[in-house]
Design goal:
alpha+beta; about 30% strand; about 120 residues; 6 strands; Ribosomal Protein S8, Chain: A, domain 1
């Protein structure tokens, strides 16, 4: 269900990848983007669903599994939360691999996040 991950142009990013979403209604639940910021020494990984999931146990499960998925990508040295919906990843991972790893988590929990969001 992960679908295509494509390279995109993003302002202030040296390289960026995002997951293509076919169904607009699922965009907030399934969108993932990774943007490499060379001057900062790593990747910003944005996970849209985290903007509105604010209750346990779902929020904690998503956070734990996203962090574990990021750390499992070859080349990742660290993966730390930097904001509600963003992680900062250091090392030399492929951006496409970061997006795919997080997309697998988001897909696995999509039914629960849709139910939480009332859709």
């Amino acid at each position: 269900m992960i679908g295509d991950v494509r390279r995109v142009q993003v302002d202030d990013a040296d390289e960026a990848w995002e997951r293509e979403i076919d169904d607009e209604d699922n965009g907030d639940v399934r969108f993932v983007e990774a943007a490499r910021i060379d001057f900062a020494g790593g990747w910003n990984v944005h996970v849209a669903v985290m903007e509105f999931v604010r209750e346990e146990p779902l929020e904690g499960e998503l956070r734990r599994r996203i962090a574990a998925a990021l750390r499992s990508v070859e080349g990742v040295e660290t993966a730390e939360e930097m904001d509600t919906e963003a992680w900062f990843v250091t090392g030399a991972p492929a951006g496409q691999a970061l997006v795919r790893a997080v997309a697998a988590v988001v897909d696995d929990l999509a039914g629960q996040t849709r139910a939480y969001a009332g859709g």
